[in-house]
Design a protein that fits this description.
Length: about 325
């Protein structure tokens, strides 16, 4: 084996090992918490996942990193106790934070409930960004220590790639602090919500958020503005909850309006494409997914995978309907 090939194999091993490690940090907003974290659900377990699960399993988009080829993705069954979980809260604080939505039915007029649903998405996203930054930096550090490259002679593109996830995580932490302050002061009305109820059985659930402005090719903005995006079943209806900071409403409402102002099957189609384009934290009922043809599954998978590198990709295909 050549020296270059050996170095590359060692680097791949470092990357795979690092990615498999959990990041455990309780993101409790009132004080620093050092307790062990649990697998906290980012989508409510007993009320939402219970409606969607079949034999205690759900369908999720499972990403597989292959350093020799393009990224891979499959829609596979995942155990309910693992689906949508993140190690960003200890058991005590997970229970304390989200008790109002874990033990009560969703009430669209309840500002605290709507805030907590959005807050859960924000916490999960911050945890994901911090882990990504830690994994990349740890891999760079360990590979440099192993002599795979000289850390003093890295070019500018390398440093940009190395530091961007850290800057991203810092920006996300600052964004999350807005929600922390609202929670600590009980000023829940500082978050604006658009809640849509559709009289249609909901076969999926989403807990995610996205920046539709920065997703436009060529646009650079100093501050990211996020739509927090939740979709879930409530009895025989579909609930869509779009949330944003009050200061961001003017800029984000036009993007939310596309879904808000649509109706019927077209509204569900737009909702489906929004999920596939922007979200990776969602689940589908296995009973519903098993009704999809292979052609439909392939279309969904190909569109979803294409958005990893082309967030603005768009084309019409009835097979992208998730409902």
């Amino acid at each position: 084996m050549s020296k270059d090939k050996k170095v590359m194999n060692e680097l791949k091993s470092l990357i795979y090992t690092q990615l498999s490690k959990k990041y455990n940090k309780c993101l409790w907003p009132k004080s620093d918490c050092t307790k062990d974290c649990i697998n906290a659900h980012s989508i409510q377990n007993s009320q939402i996942l219970d409606q969607l699960a079949s034999n205690n399993h759900l369908i999720m988009a499972v990403h597989r990193l292959n350093l020799d080829t393009e990224p891979e993705i499959e829609f596979n069954e995942v155990g309910r106790n693992k689906a949508t979980t993140f190690t960003g809260l200890c058991g005590e604080h997970d229970s304390q934070l989200f008790r109002p939505i874990d033990v009560n039915q969703f009430d669209s007029s309840n500002e605290e409930q709507k805030f907590l649903i959005a807050y859960r998405s924000v916490l999960r996203e911050l945890h994901t960004r911090i882990k990504s930054a830690r994994d990349l930096q740890t891999t760079y550090q360990k590979s440099a220590e192993a002599g795979m490259w000289d850390s003093k002679n890295m070019d500018e593109p390398f440093w940009k790639a190395a530091t961007r996830p850290i800057i991203n995580a810092i920006n996300w932490y600052q964004y999350k602090q807005n929600y922390d302050n609202i929670y600590n002061s009980n000023s829940f009305t500082e978050i604006e919500h658009e809640c849509i109820r559709i009289e249609r059985n909901c076969p999926l659930a989403v807990s995610s958020l996205f920046d539709p402005i920065k997703s436009i090719i060529g646009v650079e903005i100093p501050e990211q503005k996020f739509i927090v995006f939740n979709v879930f079943p409530q009895k025989k209806d579909t609930i869509i909850l779009l949330s944003y900071l009050g200061d961001h409403q003017k800029d984000l409402r036009p993007y939310a309006d596309e879904i808000i102002n649509a109706s019927g099957e077209y509204q569900l189609y737009l909702l489906s494409k929004t999920i596939l384009r922007y979200c990776e934290n969602f689940v589908i009922s296995p009973d519903h997914f098993n009704l999809f043809s292979q052609q439909k599954i392939d279309a969904i998978k190909n569109f979803y995978l294409a958005t990893v590198t082309q967030i603005d990709i768009d084309h019409n295909d009835k097979n992208l309907m998730l409902f």
